[in-house]
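User: New here, any thoughts?
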Amino acid sequence: MRHIVIGSGAVGGSIGGRLAETGQDVVLVARGAHYEALRTHGLRLTTPDGTRVHRLPVVDRPEALALRPDDVLLLSVKTQDSAAALDAWSGRPVEGGGTAGDLLPLVCAQNGVENERLALRRFRHVYGMCVWLPSSHVDPGEVVAPCAPYTGMLHVGRYPSGIDATARRISASLEKGALLAPLVPDVMRWKYTKLLANLSNSLGAVTGPLDTEEARLIQRRAYDEGRAVLAAAGIDSVSPEKAAEVRGDHLGLDPHLASGRDGSSSWQSLSRGTGSIEADHLNGEIVLLGRLHAVPTPVNETLARVANTFAREHRRPGSMPVAELTALIEAASGATAE
């Protein structure tokens, strides 16, 4: 099995590096300065057991790689980039005949719950992955993954449901290294739980660490809206208590590495000045479901709007006072109530 990691940033780089450490066949896909750094200097992956440089094959576009029948595609781009990546890869020919979309398994190693739907329009064999893998990618060619004894926990299952032989092969491949990959027949239940946890990504990205009661109140309100929306939509999820129990002490943060970790993936997007952020597919997913099921979501709507403004205007992460954000949320709440 060869692993093609499409989007080799924080999550993709961590998974690719850990797979490579066990001698498995890995190809990284990246763009721009990150691609150049990976191609020239290799992937510099720092974990609690040290820093390793992985000299792996790297490409910047599908046309630069001949696909094989034993390939597995791991999609690890942000959701706003998924459609373009899926379109670029699904029609690529596979050695011996056929296309990637018809023949190859594609794993959505991503936050949010929209990627699998997008993928299934283009790929016949789609797998969901619930990613619990705190990591950072700010500088080109470098990834920091601060958890031990395992780098991440990656629940895997076929989309929309089930476990098959390919899912078992993917899980076994991941678990050869410092990764846990439990097989679950209901992977989207796990991904909806992670979606709720990710609702505070935008909050931390625009206001900084959630270390005040005012910030934590916004966090709780965003989460409560999410729970209300899922209930109204009849969408089941794993309880936070169950998810925490399963993770247990497998993902302990190394204090030294964690102290230098630059926030959530949304914070990192702002730090790198990418011009886009995943808020529309995290907070925005709750807003969409709320509108479909007549549940007000002023907190998540405000978080999505402000985070998108920060990304478009290249504003510095953490630069909005919490009091200012609170005022915007209260204004939105009042408008919703009218």
User: Anything to note?
Assistant: The radius of gyration is 19 Å. The first strand starts at residue 2 and ends at 6. The CA atoms of residues 72 and 232 lie 36 Å apart. The chain is about 45% helix and 15% strand.
